[in-house]
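Lab notebook: predicted structure, single chain.

Context: the supervisor wants predicted structures on file for every construct in the current expression panel, including those that have not yet been purified. This is the next one on the list. No modifications to the sequence; it matches the entry in the shared construct table.
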Amino acid sequence: MSSLASAAEGLRMQTPDQRYGRVVAVRGALIEVDGLAGAARIGSRVTLRSQAGNVEAEVIGLDHGIAHCMPFNEPEGIASGSRADLSAGQAGLRPSAGWLGRVVDGLGRPVDGKGPLPQGPVQRRIKAAPPPASSRARVGSRIETGVRALDLFAPLCRGQRLGLFAGSGVGKSTLLSMLARWTECDVAVIGLIGERGREVQEFIQDDLGEEGLARSVVVVATSDEPALLRRQAAWTTLAVAEHFRDEGCEVLCLMDSVTRFAMAQREIGLAGGEPPATKGYTPTVFAELPRLLERAGPGAAVQGSAPQGTITGLFTVLVDGDDHNEPVADAVRGILDGHVVITRQIAERGRYPAIDVLRSVSRTLPHCLSAEDNALRLAARRELSTWKDMEEMVRLGAYRAGSSAEVDRAVAIAPRIEGLLQQDRLARSFAAQDFAALAAILEGSP
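Prediction complete. Output recorded below exactly as produced.
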């Protein structure tokens, strides 16, 4: 018996069989590996050996026994015949409360120089399915964002998913920083996907600050990172948010931007041989967008157990050429629970945040506002709409005062509403005061 026990102990100490293959071709960002037939799966991790160091990669396609892999970092030193070790199992994360205040990359590795991350007891899949639709809780009560234009005209509720649609250079990232600093939540999970490298420290130090960072986890994959890592960073952002949601927290998930995620998925799809479809985007782009965005929202409402928290999602969309009907923007707008449009024309007039309140929609209206506040919102929209229709004629002098009482009222009131919507990025607003100020404007008070 003692010999059997010692033999069993010896077997337990042995390293399990390691399956490996060899690199047979490198085609741009795609690396082809032979020898993994029957073992490699879509999503499996592969370690490529080279003289310049190991390169981590992921299997994205299979073709007649050849595994198509894409690397998470530059494949420097990879040569034909390089060894490719197949990792056992699927990769995952072990988030914990110790991740608050930390900055990680798309693979969940710390990049802030503060040492290793405390690991939680449960491994969580990076790419997970959302809670079943039949068991999800409903969207909760309204929360204040601290941004006057949103709180008045496109209010946000717990568990809602809102898109921020804008072209480049019109204040999208600045608006996101205001929302990160002031929106009510327990935990903020912020994904900076494919953005400028220089902006990372500016966002963390200037926009979040020490107090904001203390309640946040920041996931970073800059524009110079490989496409696979940029896509992985978006999945990691939602995986970390899901961990805190399951802990019962009210989570604010900010992602800048969904467009960069779609571009990364397009690069991966084209490298894997997918045909380009709408404006060069591959079919998997439009399949992955709802899989990503649906992970945000309310948690499951299971009777007899502790309620899950919610993930309130704010996702920026960089519209190509200021065309708000381009494919990614159009697809995302149909998935989310509302959209906020930021326009270049308003930014050029110097009104920030440059939110076009007439084109912005929150699908939780009108139920998320009281009857009185909703009446004020609708009245203000009517005045702004009338002013927009007649603005050009008034500026050209083609409209004669007194011709229409409705137009005369809009000419007097609309500029004051526009002035109310002007907000400095460091000045927080409060909804009760904002609705009181809007009521005073509509009543004609000075």
